[in-house]
Amino acid sequence: MTDLLSLTALEAHEAMVAGDLGAEEYTAAWREAAGGDELNAYLWRDEGGKEAAAIAVERDCVAPIAVKDIFTTEGVPTTAGSRILEGYRPPYTSSAVRKLVEAGAPILGKTNMDEFAMGSSNENSAYGPVLNPWDRERVPGGSSGGSAAVVAGGLAPWAIGTDTGGSIRQPAAFCGIVGLKPTYGAISRYGMIAFASSLDQCGPLTRTVSDAALLLGILQGKDPCDSTSVGIEGGIALPGREDLSGLRFGVPAELRGDDYDSDVRAVFEKTLRKIEELGGEVAEVSLPSSEHGISAYYVIAPAEASSNLARYDGVRYGMRAGGDGDLVEMYEATRSEGFGPEVKRRIMLGTYALSSGYYEAYYGQAQKVRTRIAEDFSGAFGTVDFVVTPTAPSVAFGLGEKTDDPLAMYLNDFFTVPMSLAGIPAISIPAGLAEPEGGGTRLPVGFQIASPAFSEQKLLDAAYALEQGIGFDARPGGADA
Amino acid sequence: MPELEAVIGLEIHVQLATKTKMFCGCELSFGDEPNVHTCPICLAHPGVLPVPNEQAIRYALQIGLALGCEIAPRSIFHRKNYFYPDSPKAYQISQYDIPICGAGRLGDVRIHRAHLEEDAAKMVHVGSSGRIHGSGASLVDFNRGGTPLVEIVTEPDLRGAPEAAEWARLLRETVRQLGVSDVNMEEGSLRVDANVSVRPAGSEELGTKTELKNMNSFRFLQRGVEAELARQRELVEAGGTVEQETLHFDPASGSLTSLRSKEEAHDYRYFPEPDLVSLAPTEEMLREARESLPELPAARIERYKAIGVPADVALTLATDPRTAGYFENVVEAAGGIEPRVLANWVTGELAAALRQAEVDGGAADSRVSPGAMAALVRMVGEKKISHGSAKIVLAAMVLEGGDPEPIVEREGLAQMSDSGELEAIVEQAMADNPDAVARVREGNDKAIGAIVGAVMRETKGRADGGEVNRLLRERL
Q1: Does the pLDDT value for residue B337 go beyond 90?
Q2: pLDDT value at position A406?
Q3: Of A9, B244, B264, B366, whose CB has the highest number of CB atoms within 10 Å?
Q4: Are B225 and B334 in a shared domain?
């Protein structure tokens, strides 16, 4: 059984296609493993009941998958980590899940997340925080914390999540796995509960770069239900690059500051040397506007969220409170009781930013910064193939450590937000372990690689070569690499 | 105090007659069971996304071109945010600073813009008043929610209530002839709001305006605007000032009540809709829209006036393109006869004959061919039959079709061409009506009618009235 679970999703898929692996046996083993969730990572699991009939696969031939609870699944509870959607069973299935099911990937379950994907620690879930499988006193990152934890913790072979400002990459880094945020428009957003529509993107959380490529290949494509979807021309092939010769990696001067964990920086610098060992070239690039990324992001994302979340009003579905009073009273009671504090904070921020008289000063300015950041990247890609940074400024922090300090929490996204604003793809791969500040179990450090829009194939090829070169094989609770 | 001038602008919502809604695949309907034409998208379930209806875009282009608007190469959808149960997303997808159609003109009124948006759901407030205040419960019917709308906004170019109603009629006719909407005001597929203000005549500045809603007929539009103008004039003449507010017109009482004041106005927090890309009509879409435009009422009116058709008759014809087409065929068949005369016959006597005979449909569908109609008018012009006889012939043509000549023959209605015979009848009539003759000779000109009547009776209408008059006057 352990052997089955040690296969990567790609290995399992190839074995199933070759007839060397019984799909039912393999899926059953994973269902059993998922049943042992001690991390609070699953909000719902498929236990063979009828409720999952609408998302059942015809024939298993792809590894079963865990799905962030932000993707709608017909008849299956979908909460987005929020009390306001408790008990909600959508009448339709998201395009991403539909594609997985059509490809033959059984859905193992729905994973816990920060409420409406707002958070960097998973502590904003209405259903309790997810624990980091490396150290259960620590957060798994967020908002796709459940999806990262199930993959790292042996509760699923792979998973999908969503990334708005780093919500795939940062938890992947904190949990020592691979997380890819594709180009905006690569994968349909239909049925992906909106946080910030111009930034949200679905993507894979996997053990290996090859698994990420396989999953992206299944998910990507233009969808008639999503006007902003484009797909990736030519699709995605499995990566096979052996070295990095001829490739230039740019380190942004503005994102190389001294104000983050020295151990994280040590792993980052070591990875740069590894790139050079593999024949790649490391150069400095300038992204002058990127340091304003966080400021712009925390205007644009809450602004869109304030509008996207206005539909949760207790009228048509989900939770309703104060239904005996008048309309405004019902709205207020439902939204006061249904949303958690961070969601309310962002709704208020966003409402303010869009208000008449403040729009230009906040939303207008933020959009200008966004354009500048995108131009910065275009400029950088004129001289380098990739831009690289640490994925997060620290390793996984302790539960409760930053919950009282929203700004400290927001700074977790410092390295990941610029790529989101530019709409370009970025991958986080595990690069090594580092001791957290204050000591304790050594924890994974992520290395982020970004590339021009729709160049996922090139990105995955390079990430694969680097992954092989690094040879990261540490596991939660196991020996250091 | 100088006279106060009315300044009126209109905002017109046109429901497009597409098969499906603006952003989802639900069918459009009117009068169906509530909430049967809904889906996760138009009910705003979590995670859904809008996909624009291409037919609605094509219709909006047709409206824009018909109104002479500049078409934006790339227009943008915005979200208009507000909480109300008729808006399940809590925002309406509309257009804001870059609408699909920019400045244009219809008749004497400049168009400010025309944009695409989606309709709200229908609210039914249970209770006596039918309005939300005082009602015990409100029901929402999402069938209408998401219906494609084009909102047309005029410049404040109208100067009176009757002008506003008349222009709104022209707009409705224009949109109707495009075939893009049912334009039914009672059913709400055409909704007209008015922005009304007054200012001293000759002033260039605009006064504070009020917005009038819920005028669901042209008559109510006129009455509502009249009432509001009267209120504002009285207020201003008494030294008061107009407050900016939205007013609700009550058709039953004809009165206006305040819906909300300026302080209560919403902050809609418009921002670009991130779920949609910009709307860029292709060359093919523009060409098709241009080619599909029929000749529109305003152009038709101008063309008919130019060939001598009186303005009111031109308007009647322009609002009925099939009859107008028929009229043009008659003009062609009639050769040199003045179009003015032919237009009067088509819109007057022929229309009356069709009504009289209770024939369904207009002139174009009738048994009277354009050639036969032209022949009849020519016979009158050549004095082969009298006007009165022609009406008798036309009544027969409406029923049996065919040319006028055989009917004239059969009914013995040919005008008396032998003036000797007519002279004899005239002299006999004078002899039979000595009193009338005496009174005419005393200067009472009207008394001649009795003698003419006698001649007409004797000739069964075949005599030419003008000729009879001439003969009588020679003898009196």
Answers
A1: yes
A2: 87
A3: A9
A4: no
> Could you tell me if B280 and B256 lie in one domain?
yes
- Same-domain status, B124 and B46: yes
Q: Which two tokens stand for residue B417?
A: 């061409």
The residue segments making up the domain with residue B354 are 295-411
Q: Which two tokens stand for residue A322?
A: 């104060």
Of B260, B291, B322, which residue is a domain's last?
B291
Number of neighbouring beta carbons within 10 Å of residue B365: 12
Q: How far apart are CA A58 and CA B360, in angstroms?
A: 60
User: Do B251 and B139 share a structural domain?
Assistant: yes
What is residue A73's three-state secondary structure?
strand
| B241 to A36, A427, B198, B199, B233: CA distances (angstroms) | 74, 64, 11, 11, 10
B386, B360: one domain:
yes
Specify the range with the lowest mean pLDDT, choosing from A149-153, A277-281, B216-220.
B216-220
Tokens representing residue B234 in the block = 């009285």
Catalytic residue flag (residue A167): yes
pLDDT for res B405? 92
Residues B281 and B302 in one domain: no
Sign of CA dihedral A142, A146, A152, A158: negative
CA distance A377 to B348: 74
**Numbered residues of chain A with Cβ closer than 8 Å to any chain B Cβ:** 70-72, 78, 80, 85, 88, 90-92, 94, 189-194, 196-198, 224-228, 303-304, 306-307, 310-313, 315-317, 327, 331, 351, 354-356, 359, 363
> How many Å lie between the alpha carbon of B61 and the closest alpha carbon of chain A?
20
**Of A134, A146, A109, A132, the residue nearest A34 (C-alpha):** A109
Q: Active-site residue A143, yes or no?
A: yes
The count of structural domains within chain B is 3
Owner of token pair 């910030």: A196
Residue type, B134: G
**Residues linked to residue B200 through DSSP beta bridges, in sequence order:** B4
- Residues on chain A touching B40 (C-beta within 8 angstroms): 90-92
Distance from CA of A346 to the nearest CA of B (A): 15
Phi then psi for residue B132, to 5 deg, are -65, -35
Task: Verify that B379 and B345 share a domain, yes or no.
Answer: yes
Q: Is the ipTM of this complex over 0.90?
A: yes
Cα–Cα dist B118/B52, whole Å: 10
State the pLDDT at residue A2.
Answer: 52
Instruction: Give tens-digit pLDDT for A382-423.
Output: 999 999 999 999 999 999 999 988 888 888 899 999 999 999
Assess whether A68 carries a catalytic annotation: yes
What lies within 8 Å, CB to CB, of B213 at 6+ separation is B193, B246, B247, B248, B249, B259
CA-CA distance, A255 to A388, in Å (whole number)?
A: 9
B130 to each of A15, A383, B124, B126, B336, how far by Cα in Å? 68, 68, 7, 6, 60
Q: What tokens does A1 get?
A: 């059984």
Stretch among A147-156, B1-10, B217-226, B460-469 having the lowest mean pLDDT: B460-469
Q: Which residues of A touch B81 (CB under 8 A)?
A: 306-307, 310, 354
Task: Give yes or no: residues B425 and B386 share one domain.
Answer: no
Residue that is last in its domain, among B363, B388, B411? B411
- Whether B391 contacts B357, CB under 8 Å: no
d(CA B380, CA B378): 5
pLDDT digits (tens, 9 = 90+) for B248-278: 999 888 889 998 887 777 899 999 999 999 9
Question: How is domain A1-248+385-481 classified at the CATH fold level?
Answer: Amidase signature (AS) enzymes (3.90.1300)
Mind listing the pLDDT tens digit for each residue in B130-179?
Answer: 666 667 788 999 999 999 999 999 999 999 999 999 999 999 999 999 99
Q: With 80 as the cut, is the pLDDT of residue B39 above it?
A: yes
Over residues B102-120, mean pLDDT: 97
Bridge partners, A248 (sequence order): A281
CA A78 to chain centre: 17
